[in-house]
Amino acid sequence: MVVVLASSTDASGGIGCWDLNTGSEQIRYKSFSSPSHGLVSVGDRFLASSQLRDASTSSASVFFWSWSKPQVEVKSFPSEPITPLASNHSGTYLVGGGLSGEIYLWEVETGRLLKKWHGHNTAVTCLVFSEDDSLLISGFKNGSVRVWSLLMIFDDVRRREASKIYEYSFSDHTLCVNDVVIGYGGCNAIIASASDDRTCKVWTLSNGMLQRNIVFPSKIKAIALDPAEHVLYAGSEDGKIFVAALNTTRITTNDQVSYITGSFSNHSKAVTCLAYSAAENFLISGSDDGIVRVWNASTHNIIRVFKHAKGPITNILVLRQENDLSNPMSSNLQGTSKKKGAQFPPLEKYANSMDEDSDKTTIVSLGGGNICMDVSYLSSQVISSYSKELQSQGSAAASEMEIEKLKRDCQKSVQMVNKWKKMYENLHQFCVKEMLDGNEK
């Protein structure tokens, strides 16, 4: 079952969840006000959302929900308001961007604040991981887009020695970056960004060069890529969704040069978020009018309409779930007890230098979920401990393995030499025979 989740700035609206195929509402999670890019699925095991009760307040929180329970399971209170959130695909890490420009990286299983670094001198507006989780891309209020390598972030020695810790810093936008998406291909993927300056920029990570500068007639609030990365959909402030070509040269119309091939609209207010469902070839849009619309990406016809709340839609997620969230019986199919609660700690406010209980493995479990919620994996402390143990105790075994490898390589070399000798002998005999036959003639 494919589900659509949408959050709103309306505190009474919560987070709605609908079956994309039937249109039926599955569940509504209780929340306050979820900011833009503040809703994320953590490893397809549970939901996390940053919460802002009052835009003027200096306090904020991050809430966690299991899939089948509308109540908040875990509440965390970071050191500053967090707006955008991002999780790697396995759900091991959760990254948050602060209003101060700081970027925080937590380990979900332990709640530990593993890393914190200064992203920029202005608020972080959006965060996204690359397909292989090796890169983190961040957008900022001042129009900058920066690319971070997690290898650099976790390497304290390289960070101290480097003059800059980001891989790329793009400053082509002149106003706030509202959305960032990344294609497939890891370090060779493309990055597209949308801004209030009425442009979308497309860069390639292979060399950091700007590939496209697409100018629109209004501010762009959200973007989405089709799976083939041929089309960029751009949701605008005037309620239109523009279609821009990424695999063609510029299009000239009425003496104007553009990459825009068309547009469609049914929203009465600004389009605030976009998501693409590749399996159904659907484009899902959310708007300030509080309505979520599902479009056929090919025909641009409306397939479904979800009425969420009175307030603006701030986030849309498209996820695949195994069971019906609205059916209490299906939530027990995985053998998870309803009495179980979240068995992981809240996110740390500050980094803790003390490695307490580093030799323990914690089970992340959220009760009542529609999928198996008992997930176990090693924490960073355990992995580090294992690495040190292998380095200190594995030298003898490593030497034996190296000797065996050398023996095999030597044997292969001897076989190759014998093969060349045999070929030389055959060639020599052939040449001698040819010479003798020539002399006889």
Give the secondary structure arrangement, pairings included.
Layout (H helix, E strand, L loop, with lengths): L1 E7 L6 E5 L5 E5 L9 E4 L3 E6 L9 E6 L7 E3 L5 E6 L5 E6 L3 E6 L5 E6 L5 E6 L5 E6 L4 E5 H5 L1 H6 L4 E5 L6 E6 L7 E6 L3 E6 L5 E6 L4 E6 L5 E6 L3 E6 L5 E3 L2 E3 L1 E6 L5 E7 L4 E6 L3 E6 L5 E6 L5 E8 L42 E2 L10 E2 L3 H14 L1 H46 L1
Antiparallel strand pairs: 1-2, 1-30, 2-3, 4-5, 5-6, 6-7, 8-9, 9-10, 10-11, 12-13, 13-14, 14-15, 16-17, 17-18, 18-19, 20-21, 21-22, 22-25, 23-24, 26-27, 27-28, 28-29, 31-32
Note down, in words, how this protein is organized.
- A 4-stranded antiparallel β-sheet has the order 3-2-1-30, with no helix packed on it.
- The chain is α+β, with helices and mostly antiparallel strands.
- The protein starts with a strand and ends with a helix.
- The chain has 2 domains: 2-320, Methylamine Dehydrogenase, Chain H; 396-440.
- The chain is globular and about 105 Å long.
- Helices cover 16% and strands 39% of the residues.
- The longest helix has 46 residues, at 395-440.
- It contains 4 helices and 32 strands.
- The relative contact order is 0.13.
Largest sheet: 4 strands, antiparallel
Give the total of domains: 2
CATH superfamily of the largest domain: YVTN repeat-like/Quinoprotein amine dehydrogenase
- In the predicted model, the low-confidence regions spanning at least 5 consecutive residues are 328-341, 353-379
Query: What spatial form do the alpha-carbon principal axes imply?
Result: globular
* Name of the top-level CATH class of the largest domain: Mainly Beta
Number of helices: 4
Protein name: WD40-like
Domain Neurobeachin beta-propeller: 91-322
GO biological process, one term: DNA-templated DNA replication
Keywords: Repeat, WD repeat
